[in-house]
Amino acid sequence: MIYMLDTQIQFDAETIHAIPFLFLFVLIAVFLVIVIRSILDYRFKIKMVEKGVSENLAVQLLSKPKQPRQTTMKWAILLGGTGLGVLLVALNGRLDIYSLAIMLFALSASFLGYYIYVVKSE
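Now predict its structure.
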């Protein structure tokens, strides 16, 4: 069975059925990365206690970056630019070297937008 989203875009049943498996794979990979990172952080903290690291140095090493808003905006701008590039490629209607150029320009415009955001926020 073939699913048609547009006259140019078609997905077969195998592609549609592969999406949940890819999603599950990504979830498992993210879970494994989080578990491994937690284990390594724990081992790092234990080593610091064993070595007798000073409290000031421990606080500096274990402190997390305090810029979640900037990170969120970075990803929002980059993913928005990528989505805009995909939309422009879909409106173009064909996949060729021009589609790659459209995607690259959209991504570079996203990075430029993020740079302007960072400069204005400082």
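Residues 63 and 118 are 22 Å apart (CA to CA).
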